[in-house]
Amino acid sequence: MNKGTFRIIHAEVVTPRGIFHDGAVAVRDGVITYVGSTAGLPSGPKDSQETIDAGGSYVLPGFIDVHVHGGMMQDFSEPSKEAFDDITKLHCSQGTTSMLATTMTLPKAVIEQVLEEVHQYIHSEMPYAKLAGVHLEGPFISPKWPGAQNPAHIVPPNRSWVEAWEEQYPGLIKQVTFAPEREGAHDLIRFLREKGIVAAAGHTDATYEEIMAAVEVGLHHAVHTFNAMTPLHHRKPGTAGAILSSPAISGEIIADGIHVHKAGIQLLASVKTNHNLILITDAMSAAGLGNGEYKLGDLPVIVKDNVCTLKESEGTLAGSTLTMIRGFRHLVQEIGLSVQQASEAASLNPAKLIRIDHLTGSVETGKQADLLLVGKGNLDLQKVWVEGRLFQE
Fold first, then answer.
1. Model confidence over 80-135: pLDDT tens digits?
2. Model confidence pLDDT, tens digit, residues 58-75
3. How far is CA 254 from CA 184, 224, 227, 243, 359, in A?
4. How far is CA 37 from CA 20, 22, 46, 52, in A?
5. What is the dihedral of CA 147, 153, 154, 160, to 10 degrees?
6. Where does residue 254 rank: exposed (0-12), middle (13-18), buried (19+ CB within 10 A)?
7. Distant-in-sequence, close-in-space partners of 392: CB < 8 Å, separation ≥ 6
8. 385: β partners
9. Model-level pTM?
10. Which residue is catalytic, options 205, 282, 357, 370?
11. Is 282 among the catalytic positions?
12. Whole-angstrom Cα distance, residue 32 to residue 29?
């Protein structure tokens, strides 16, 4: 599949330096070669280079989802090329150009199967959204806060497991989510810091003090902030209070109007202003589909009106059906973030988190042409390019 060569003119181009009104972007062989005003756009070659008049639209960087479990009846925890194609195709159609294959709290052998399948997939031609690596959500979590994870598979943090996986698949694991208060967690954090892997608190019973002690050794991220963690109390700030008060911790948020109240998202966004607010979907196998019965990992889930709950534990949220474009719209239209702020939460910030911002995550010359065309009115998604290739159903 050839990488694209094209130009976009008369757009509102959102960049880390601000928005170019009546802006333009030029792409050659899948790489951005110009970002600036339409008036300053160099003349293109006299070949078949396509010119797209995008008046009335934004050009945004493609979304990067670091916490997504599946979609279209498929789950990363039941790995296959067909499953990965279905998941990445769905989310690409909704603006995601890179993502982390996110596991669950599962038996060690199943996790190792996921790692092997993702490794194989990454080294093949990925036709839709790119898998940038793996996010291990568990099995090193707290039995007190399993959420929609299967408690039968929870184990204490185990550095030796992660060391062996990293040795076998160097650079594949990008993020590990665990309960930092559990025995062995600090040793794991030190290894993750040494390897440049995101050390993330989640599904945790940690006190404020335990989180801050973990920060001292390298903890620097929190998954689905406010969900499955000790809450904020004025005398016991808990994990939520530590996330809100510490600039060293970046915070994920599921902006679907279900997982977190509007005021909670606004509060998190007000303190995470230094590239440390991360929009995620936490999407499960029901994403892209309707009401019905599905699975998250190996647990049955009921979906009704976009609310996903465990079948055996009514009221326990079990992932979401969110897509990144819907989360992006929610941040702008309901939470009040600017388009640029929401774009950073959905693209540049996650790229920085998993250290791929030199390749993607922003509209800048020299980066991959992972681009979106989004209407200015209702923020409707119009076009998606992955490395300059136009996504087509």
1. 999 999 999 999 999 999 999 999 999 999 999 999 999 999 999 999 999 999 99
2. 999 999 999 999 999 999
3. 29, 6, 9, 15, 25
4. 6, 6, 21, 14
5. -140
6. buried
7. none
8. 371, 390
9. 0.97
10. 282
11. yes
12. 9
